[in-house]
Amino acid sequence: MDELRSGLDKPSHFRLGLAMWSHSNWQESVYGHGIKQAERLARYATIFNTVEGNTSFYATPAQQTVMNWHSATPDDFRFTFKLPQTITHQRLLQHCGQELKDFFQVMAPLIDKTGIWKIQLPAHFGPENLPVLAQFLNQVPQGLTYGVEVRHAAFFAKGDAERALNRLLIDKKVNRIIMDSRPLFALPPSNAAIIDAHKKKPRVPVHAIATANNPVVRFIGQPDDAVAQLAQQGVSALPKNNDAFFDNWLAQLPLWLAEGREPYLFIHTPDNETAPELAIRLYQTLRSQIAAQIQLAELSLLEKIPEETSTQMGLAW
């Protein structure tokens, strides 16, 4: 199979990435033969121009690790890091000034390469907690870009609570992170990876709103062959596939781009084994869609390496 090289070399308005940069199943599809684990980030960053740094949610990395990540990525690469769960889930954004200071002190070497600092809130963080969120957004280091992901049902009910949340985020110029898990939950619990993802991923309505300049879409897709496998098993009522769900984003993403916004699109699959292939395919579909509306020069493209060049590089898909 043909290989990819430098998919998003000089991004200007659009950022594409995955849930992580290191996965044992991506050796041939992303890294190539001979690439060591410590070199995976550098290889990942030649294809994608952003990534979800979810590990910071569980533990703050060592500062030397942070500096290594900085060295491994080009100047135009952008990480997105979750604030630690001690701040967002245990202290619920309160009485966490020292933890916040310590976290950003460690992460300081990556300030210039972090596009969004993500504040993921638990499902029990509800409308009554909005004043706490407002105070917290005044407390975090200013001049950085933040995104908030909520999971309380009231924030998806299109009522007063959601309007209050959106007004707060707009006033603070903070992005509302959008979780699109429709493709995942369209699938029956047919294997261990899907069952696990059903348990861990939130099932919330998709409200495509941009409250600031960097709307974030987390698209939890299916393995591309999932629907075909169900058909082979004789399932008569087949769910919609990835493309059917992504049609909404084919319409919305160009609108944000036309408004001068810089959206982030993160592609997941239940176990993320085939997430790179899905991300690349959906990006290529989006690229074709944008061609009629926005100059292609404003997007960096995923390109193919000629076969003879691939052989010389020793990389294989």
Written description of the protein model:
Mean pLDDT is 87; it is low at 1-12 and 295-317. This protein is of the alpha/beta class and 317 residues long. It is built from 14 helices and ten strands. It has helices at residues 27-31, 40-44, 55-58, 63-72, 85-90, 97-107, 130-139, 160-172, 182-186, 192-200, 226-232, 242-258, 275-290, 307-313, and strands at 3-5, 15-18, 50-53, 78-82, 114-120, 146-149, 175-180, 216-220, 264-268, 303-305.
Put simply, the count of helices is 14
- Please give the CATH architecture: Alpha-Beta Barrel
**Share in helix:** 25-40%
* CATH-defined fold name: TIM Barrel
Shape descriptor:
globular
Number of domains: 1
Contiguous runs where pLDDT drops below 50 for at least 5 residues: 1-12, 295-317
Protein name: DUF72 domain-containing protein
Pfam families: DUF72 (PF01904)
InterPro entries: DUF72 (IPR002763), UPF0759_sf (IPR036520)
Organism: Shewanella baltica (strain OS155 / ATCC BAA-1091)
